[in-house]
Hints:
The complex is a heterodimer of chains A (144) and B (186). Chain A is mainly α and 144 residues long. Chain A folds into 2 domains: 7-51, no CATH class; 60-136, no CATH class. Helices cover 74% and strands 0% of the residues of chain A. Chain A has helices at 8-14, 20-32, 34-50, 60-100, 107-135. The longest helix of chain A is centred in the middle third of the chain and has 41 residues, at 60-100. The relative contact order of chain A is 0.06. The model of chain A is unreliable at 139-144 (pLDDT under 50). By secondary structure, chain B is mostly helical. Chain B folds into 2 domains: 1-97, RNA polymerase sigma factor, region 2, helix turn helix motif (Rna Polymerase Sigma Factor, Chain: A, Orthogonal Bundle); 106-186, Winged helix-like DNA-binding domain superfamily/Winged helix DNA-binding domain (Arc Repressor Mutant, subunit A), CATH 1.10.10.10. In chain B, helix 3 packs across helix 4 (73-92). Chain B is globular, with a radius of gyration of 19 Å. Chain B starts with 8 loop residues before the first helix and ends with a helix. The mean pLDDT of chain B is 84.
Amino acid sequence: MKCGRTELDSVRYIDDEMTQEERAEYEEHLLSCEECRETVERFKELKALTGRVRMKDPTDEFWEDYWKSLYRRMERRVAWIFIIIGAFIFFAYALYEILISFKKFTLDKAGLAFVLAGIILLLISVIRERVHEYKVDRYKDVQR
Amino acid sequence: MNGGKVIGPKEIVLEWVKGDPSAFGRIVKMTMKQAYAVALSFVGNADDAKDISQEAFIHAHRARSRYDPDREFFPWLYTIIRNLCLNFLKKRKVQTNLSLDALELKPSRDPNPQEQVIVNEKREMVWKALFELTPEHREVIILKDINGYSYAEIAGILDVPIGTVMSRLYYAREKLYEVLKGFKSI
């Protein structure tokens, strides 16, 4: 501002964040400063517009579903962890049983061993990704 | 458990931190409307706002052992929602999902239909203009002008000094004024 006042005064003024003394002093300044007066008028006009915006409050059904779907979401996440761990143990054990029963090479056993090894690798990849996501999760340690 | 005694929000949060699973449900019910409104002000449509605010509760629940009970709960949750929203917007890059359904418009029973149309049009225009701003600028205007928080409250929520709140508001309003001028709404 050419007058030497900070532009933040105009913001504080229209937001009613000045003390009574500051307000009275600023109003006196406005009488003689066209630049500040214009800024205040501009912001008042703007605030009258933004003050009209209201966000719609969703229906009661929306809120009822909000909690239920959040609960389902959390439940499913736990369920997936159990499924992945269980599947990993199951397939790893099956692969182990096949490998120790290899007395003679047969195509069916070899095929099954490769399928199981593939599934295990996929499960390891999923588990590793989840662990990595958790480690780099920027919000898990959010502290204020 | 509280033995049937009526307990306040602070105590519920304390019970949740201590591990009472039922307290989490009560916290969600206490703060879900605010959480949803915050997400909506960032992402602009109801479906994404619901999704992100729910995700924020899950993050908060997972991080509850690190929550400082001496602090207010909602500013902490706000930080999580805000970060999730900013990440979401960064991934989406282009703001294409803005919905006017999230906006409260004047009811049709208004006695002056012409005035009702004008007010609704202005509300829609301001809502669209707000989404032309950066999320940081939009956030301060919504917190101040739509939600009516004081500078001190906004500073607490955003964890920034009051001076930063004021300067962000100044630049955000200057920018919004320019956008609305471009829309010929001002």
